[in-house]
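subagent[fold] <- orchestrator: predict structure for attached chain, return tokens only, no commentary.
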Amino acid sequence: MAVQARSQQLEECTLVAVRPHAPSRWTRRRFVESICGGFGSVGLAGMLQDHLGAAASTRPVGPHFASKAKHVIFLFMTGGPSQMDLLDPKPALRTYAGQRPESVDLRTERMTGGLLPSPFEFRRHGRSGTEVSELLPKLAEVVDELCVIRSMYTFNPTHTPARNLIHTGNIASTRPSLGAWISYGLGTENRNLPGFVVLSPGARGGDLWRSGFLPAEHQGTHFNHSELDPEQMIRYLRNDMLDATAQREQLDLTQSLNRLHMERIGEDAYLDARIRAMETAYRMQFEALDVFDVRNEPDYIRQDYGDTPFANGCLLARRLVEQGVRYVHVYYGPGQPWDDHKTINKNLRARCPDMDRGTAALIRDLKQRGLLEETLIVWGGEFGRTPVSEAGDGRDHNPYGFTMWMAGGGVRGGVTHGATDEFGFQAVENRVSIHDLHATILNQLGFDHERLTYRYAGRDFRLTDVHGVVLRELLA
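subagent[fold] -> orchestrator:
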């Protein structure tokens, strides 16, 4: 009876304090849902975080062995960049221009023509002598930091399943993302910021940073890095409707309902995760507006990166890992701009300077600050492009052989690994799968990819499923 009386009292208090004209019956879940429209006000649960064990964050798994890296920045070229125009020169394309030699099975997703040579010149750069396209002069200056993998391959030529695979290790859209696994394994170094941050000019793609069956607190937090003003980038962060006293009263009520729910029903993992997200949101009010404001950087730093959305994303990624964020995923977007089915040469000339400048600046900046050794940078898309032409002056999707690179985080710089055939269509030497890439990333963070598991639906799941080999020859 005492519990029922207390419940009625809390419900009446809710009606007065939160929704004066609300219906007469309120539950804890309905109350929390009702106030979730305001990012900052909901996050005030953090006021009691240190006093209430029920709202405490789950403990990270922790690394299995000493790590080389503490953070990951994934620069994702949405749509699939063309390897033979950027980092995998194929002079044979000029020799056999317009032809379809039988030496390679040039099967493609759509109807395509003959071999399409790249018009861009390649030159050797750095002590390593790595060949780089004229489109990437800035990256050529830091090429000795890059571990270029020219033998990536996947097995699906369609954007959505291929993108799911590189983000989650599975072509389905229901699995936890790489960032969620890293958050689950390592937790966060900064309790005032999310452990997994997604920087994308558009809101599309939420399935790619989901937590899946992992606790919801490990889902990526999305920010629009095309905005410079953090107040626009992080909508509803501050509560302009309530003063501190009113916020505290609202929070006290929320936590009272939390405790009452625990007494009645027991733990509710989903709602507890939601409360933890609120706590992070509250704490972000004190730190995020400063960290997310790249305008605080000196002019010479901003000029080095450039002033485009992608440049801002690269600079913001550096600021975030500097403040302890574990995983930052930066999308070159919006949409899928690297999906060059036509006018590819014109498109690359327009697009590459922006990507090249921001990416190279990020590498230099991290190195100058002593952060490159502990930050693993990964660059690439969901697949590559075909060496044969589509629509006359474009390239189709190519999952059979493409290029990605890594830098920092304990990988060897100045290395070129693997090879495609003479036309750049199929990976033929030291082939590297997406699961191999994931296993290597986790290894650098101190995890045995076969042991970083989560039990769900009666069995243990892992990012790499039943696949994946650590690319030890690429490690310093």
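orchestrator: received. Logging for downstream: The two ends are 66 Å apart (CA to CA). The longest strand covers residues 146-153.
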